[in-house]
Each structure stands twice: as C-alpha cells, then as structure tokens.
C-alpha cells in the first residue's frame, strides 16, 4: 500500500467524524430542537412539584405514572417516573420530529443538493444524519434524567434505594441503575429514529415528514392498546419500551430488555436499509 493510500484511509474517518459533528451541531442549533429539549426538561419539574404539593401535608402520593408513589421516599425515583412519563409520547415525538426533518428539511431548504456536491457521498451523509439523530436520542433522554435528578434532590430526600423487589441498595448503585435505565430508554428510541429517517427520504417537505412520523407513532400507540390486535403487538417498536423497569429489580430481569433492544435493532436494520436504498437512488433537484 502506498503512502498516499494510507493517508487517504486515515483521512476518511476524520472526514466522517467532521460530517457527524457538523450534522449534530446543526440539529442542536435549531430553535425547534432547543424548544423540544426545554419541554422535556420541564416534565420532571412538573411531576416533582405536583407530587411535592400533593404530599405536603404528609399524605401519600396518588396515582399517576409508574414509580410516582415512591418519589416521596427517595428523590431518585423521580428519574424513573419521569422517563416512564415521557417515553410513551414526549421523547419519541421529539425524536420523530428531528428524524423526520433530517433529509426532508434539507431538501425543503434547498441545501441538500449542495451537501451532495461535497465529496462525502450519499451513504456517508445518510449515516452521519442518522448518527446525529441517535445522539439526539441520548441527549434528550439525559436531559430528562438530569432534570429529574436535580429536581428530586431539591424537593425530596436522597439515600439508599429500595428497589421494586424490596431489596435495598446503596444510593450510588441506585444512581448507576438510573444511568443504565436512561441508556436503555435511549436505545428504545432507535427504532422510531430509523423509521423517521426513512420517511424523511420519501418527501421534500420537512413538515410533511415530521407530521407523518408523529402520526405513525400515534397510530402504533393506538394499535398497541387494542386487545383484538394482540397477535401483532409484540412486534410493534414501542410494545416493550417500559421493560426498563426490570432494571429496578433485584435480580434484574433481562429477558424483556433484551427483547426490546433486539426488536429495535430489527427496525433499524429494516428501515435503515430502506432509507439507504431510497436516498442513494433518488433524484435530488433541490
């Protein structure tokens, strides 16, 4: 191998990393993205304040999302409650908006053609866009978790964590479990991210792509609640989302979590391949 080939091979990863960095910064600089993150950060605050007001007289917390009744004893449970409250709609909606806008938004703005003129190539550009959406999945999930952790520390006591199975673990171990829960929740969003990216390659309208992705999310949620459709529900990308609760047990039940992540990987493979096939063959005119 010649020195020129060696240099070319070493430059390609650097270019790919630079392209990913550019795409991620583009996503995070949009006012729409910042507004979505602000809404996500506000949800734990609202839950924490509501629970604090309700239990201000010493009474127990009432109904609501999972883990809410445990918040008053340990503020760390606000992290689990907030993720359980935002995962069914707020988090996937935010991801669907960002993923749906990834390609279609560039086409609508007239900048997609100029991106393709660069030597990056369509495949590398699409991979960079999807990587930036995955990074947003992680960022959005961590925003919810960190907001919940800070709010829980300010409003409720912190200490050793009594898990759902009744076992008590040190606070540091509970904190590690909360981080693992956040990572699993972020991984649960990879399927809707791939679906949104595929939809984004089908149209030149960013608004249409975002609306279609969110509409598909709502439709799948409805299908998941109809008992007569129980045969197909285990194959829906959101059916196993709340399996992360098994991480708050001792021992941890891995079967549901493993099944969830495997299902997400299947959606990523199918819709990621479909997005690649569409994007690499479409005629870009704007």
Uncertain ranges: 1-11
Helix proportion range: 55-70%
Order of helices and strands: HHHHHHEEHHHH
Strands, count: 2
Distance between the termini: 40 Å
Shape: globular
Strand order of the largest sheet: 1-2
* Number of helical segments with 4 or more residues: 10
Structural Rg: 21 Å
Strand content: under 5%
Mean pLDDT: 87
Question: What characterizes the major β-sheet?
Answer: 2 strands, antiparallel
Structural class: mainly alpha
Would you summarize the structure shown here?
This protein is an all-alpha fold and 286 residues long. The chain has helices at 3-29, 31-54, 77-86, 90-109, 112-117, 122-155, 171-188, 190-200, 206-223, 254-279, and strands spanning 161-162, 168-169. It is built from 10 helices and 2 strands, in the order ααααααββαααα.
